[in-house]
Design brief:
Elements lengths: L33 E2 L6 E2 L15 E4 L2 E5 L6 E3 L22 H34 L5 H10 L26 H7 L3 E5 L5 E5 L8 E6 L3 E7 L4 E6 L2 E6 L3 E2 L34 E6 L4 E6 L3 E2 L7 E6 L5 E9 L6 H11 L3 E7 L3 E8 L2 E9 L3 E10 L3 H14 L1 E2 L1
Antiparallel strand pairs: 1-2, 3-4, 4-5, 6-9, 6-12, 7-8, 9-10, 10-11, 13-14, 14-22, 15-16, 16-17, 17-21, 18-19, 19-20, 20-21
């Protein structure tokens, strides 16, 4: 015979199914009414499965007692029990023919997940909406009000606003002092004086004297001023000088009242060299800034030298010699030996002569037919002296110039 529960082939004297444990000898087909242990539906007599939900009937008799198996957990329980004592499943047909309780938990889990997802979506959506509102640009009129009343960087101004360029500041007319640095001024020379003219603080003969400008010195002409004065710049100082002592023609320097013309019959002899005078007249250069004086041949012509060490520069008419009257502050504390070494470095060649003392040095070098002589007075505060550069072919005359200029030096 076969097991009524699982269909397994059984021996004729079997009490239990060796496949599912079913008690085959207790089955009673005379039972009038049976109910499904899973859904509670009435089961036809002799049916092996519930016609409503398909659950196995599993009804047995044992010692005149009827047992059924719980359709949810499979526990054996007495017939007439309302709820399974093992899992609590209702067996009286009042569970509204729903799936097993284990299956009922699946929709609940799905519903829970759906609700959780919906809540999460609501939170995320709310945050996105809040964020977009937090960083929305304020209305354009608010931005304009902010930009007008506060000093804000250009980057925070509304991008939709049309850019405006600031009105250029009104051009300022440079003063006379500013114009000296902004434009190249004409060069004028001091003429018609015996030694110096005064550079004054104002255009008046009673104004304080800023500097003394020696005869032949170049100045930068700024503009004409009142009272017959002109505004000029001399050695970086701006002041006023009488216009009658200024000329833009350097040849006018030789027309000074105290400057005899070359070869004028004054008894000055001239050798065979062009315009080289063996016994010239001398004019004194007075440097008030560095407190020293130095003579120079009256027939030498002034020229501009860009070297800041040079205070006054002149040349022989035939360019056979150049005289540089020099002065500078000794801010670096140069020694006598260092000054002499610097001169030999600037004018290299054969050293023809050199000598020095505690506060002075003299040196002469010769190179390529040119003689370079320098004499300098050195103190802790200043370096003052002169250089004479001349053609070696004229050395017999210019060596005498060196001695004459040296004798004229006076240091205060």
């Amino acid at each position: 015979m076969k097991c009524k529960n699982c269909g397994n082939e059984l021996s004729s004297n079997a009490l239990f199914c060796d496949n599912c444990g079913y008690e085959v000898n207790l089955y009673d087909e005379t039972e009038e009414k049976l109910f499904c242990g899973n859904c509670g539906a009435e089961i036809e007599n002799g049916a092996e499965f519930c016609g409503e939900c398909g659950a196995a009937v599993n009804i047995h008799k044992n010692n005149d007692s009827v047992y059924i198996f719980c359709g949810n957990c499979g526990a054996k329980i007495p017939e007439g029990t309302i709820c399974c004592s093992n899992c609590g499943n209702r067996l009286d047909g009042l569970d509204e023919k729903s799936p097993k309780s284990s299956n009922r938990r699946i929709p609940a889990l799905i519903i829970t997940l759906v609700l959780t997802a919906a809540a999460l979506a609501a939170v995320v959506g709310g945050y996105i909406i809040w964020s977009s509102k937090e960083y929305d640009a304020p209305p354009e009129e608010e931005l304009i009000a902010v930009n007008e009343n506060t000093e804000q960087p250009a980057a925070v101004q509304s991008a939709s606003a049309a850019p405006t360029s600031a009105a250029p500041e009104a051009a300022q007319t440079p003063t006379a002092n500013e114009s000296t640095a902004a434009e190249k001024l004409d060069t004028y020379y001091v003429v018609n004086c015996s030694e110096n003219i005064s550079l004054r603080a104002e255009a008046s003969v009673s104004a304080s004297v800023l500097k003394e400008i020696p005869l032949g010195a170049p100045v930068s002409y700024v503009e004409a001023a009142q009272n017959g004065f002109a505004k000029v710049v001399y050695n970086g100082v701006t002041g006023y000088a009488l216009q009658s002592y200024l000329s833009d023609d350097p040849s006018d320097i030789q027309k000074a009242n105290n400057a005899p013309a070359v070869n004028s019959g004054s008894g000055k002899s001239q050798n065979n060299y062009n315009n080289v005078i063996s016994d010239p007249d001398y004019v004194t250069y007075n440097d008030t800034d560095y407190s020293f004086t130095c003579a120079y041949p009256s027939h030498f012509k002034v020229y501009n030298d860009s070297d800041k060490f040079v205070r006054y520069s002149l040349k022989a008419p035939d360019d056979t010699a150049a005289l540089k009257i020099c002065a500078t502050s000794n801010g670096s504390g140069l020694s006598v030996k260092k000054v002499m070494d610097n001169f030999k470095s600037s004018y290299p060649g054969t050293v023809d002569y050199e000598n020095s003392g505690d506060t002075w040095c003299a040196v002469c070098t010769i190179q390529n037919g040119q003689c370079h002589y320098g004499y300098f007075h050195v103190t802790s505060s200043s370096i003052r002296g002169f250089e004479l550069h001349y053609s070696q072919s004229c050395a017999a005359i210019y060596d005498q110039y060196v001695n004459d200029i040296y004798d004229s030096l006076k240091f205060n």
